[in-house]
């Protein structure tokens, strides 16, 4: 599995024992390379070649007699999808071409974005195995990336609900995913909120704050120090941010933002509400934000087991330029199930 994120590409090489009703995890190998595919916007072939160091690691690890039946998937995040024009498609085309021409692995046809993380977490937490009791609730996954956020969960609906306002079933659409795993069928809701990852959402906040500042009268301090007040910065702090070039084109400029006078949670929350477009038209109800249909977690996911993931391995790197060396509790050790649970539940709410 190659995770082509906005800040770098990572390969996860998993070994499973498939001799039983449910796959049994044995071990994982991990390696990271930087920069990410989106950094090669003008060089699609260079983007494809950047994955060689990861794929060559897989060739060395996977037994030669099993390579032809070992699936490989390249999952590019929103950092790549946000490239203008045909740049993202050109890069993916070159990546696929290089995989088919130079490497012996099997390329799956179906796009299962977001679902893999849900399977990984629920498998490790023993909620979807063949031996798991049928009434065991699964965990929801919220994966905060750099340019997008993915949510995957298994909603449940009560046909006997007396309230006419409550949803009775999951609406049809691209968000609906039927998964057969461990001898059972799971109907999942999945969606990728493009533009709402950690880096991209923060950039949206900065752009909105800068625009709002242009509509109001600046304070004397803002004029004197040539800064823009940003309520989402802590008081006493400043930050230089880049404004412009939202679609990869156009002129960018640096703006110094300060939280000295107006930094506060309440004021920042109002800005975030605007960024989330909570008032957008909701054609299919209920909606989460930006007019996107999503079943209510309170109604359809009442047990509330939600896992939040965001750069759990990358954040342990000693420096941005070197591959991360995760501590022991981040390593998927098949002999230490407690350690696996702790690694995941660090982000549990």
TrEMBL record:
Membrane topology: Single-pass type II membrane protein
Cell location: Golgi apparatus membrane
This enzyme's EC code(s): 3.6.1.42
Binding-site residues, ATP: 146-150
GO molecular function: ATP binding; GDP phosphatase activity; ribonucleoside triphosphate phosphatase activity; UDP phosphatase activity
Pfam families (UniProt xref): GDA1_CD39 (PF01150)
UniProt entry keywords in alphabetical sequence: ATP-binding, Hydrolase, Nucleotide-binding
Active site residues according to the UniProt entry: 113
Any one annotated GO CC term: Golgi membrane
One GO-annotated biological process of the protein: protein N-linked glycosylation
Entries under Gene3D superfamilies matching the protein: 3.30.420.40, Exopolyphosphatase. Domain 2
UniProt similarity note: Belongs to the GDA1/CD39 NTPase family.
Function: After transfer of sugars to endogenous macromolecular acceptors, the enzyme converts nucleoside diphosphates to nucleoside monophosphates which in turn exit the Golgi lumen in a coupled antiporter reaction, allowing entry of additional nucleotide sugar from the cytosol.
Protein name as it appears in the record: guanosine-diphosphatase
Top-level taxonomy: Eukaryota, Fungi, Dikarya, Basidiomycota, Agaricomycotina
